[in-house]
Amino acid sequence: xxxxxxxxxxxxxxxxxxxxxxxxxxFEYEDLGAHSVVADDDYPxxxxxxxxxxxxxxxxxxxxACRSGQGECIVANKVTGVRGAxxxxxxxxxxxxxxxxxxxxxLPADYLTxxxxxxxxxxxxxxxxxxxxxFTRRLNKVNQIDHQLN
Length: 150
What we know:
Layout: E1 2-7, H1 12-24, E2 28-31, H2 44-56, E3 60-66, H3 70-76, E4 84-86, H4 90-98, E5 104-108, H5 114-126, H6 133-149
Parallel strand pairs: 1-2, 1-3, 3-5, 4-5
């Protein structure tokens, strides 16, 4: 499993904390930026490369952070094969993986403590997609929509 990280200026500090946690827990990751705080940078510049990498490998995940988490989530979900989910606690991070097989976790950095965010990352990465029929059925419908759009 490889994890791709991205954050604009609003999520930069949180991304750096997540990198430390990933390294301490022996996860393979790649930081796709920002690599420093640039006050007027734009979230699509980081969310799109992360989404493209995640879409190219079924064994990878992405973690994005910006102020609200919304913008990067919108961008990520423009890429076929990406299921980006905005989460705000461990319960929503769990259901994003368990119920919806999300492959990118979008974090609202302005609204999370680092402790909560790290617990969410851990939950997201440790949770498997549930094979329950209702979840599989719904995911198949999402995949059909993806194929109709392209």
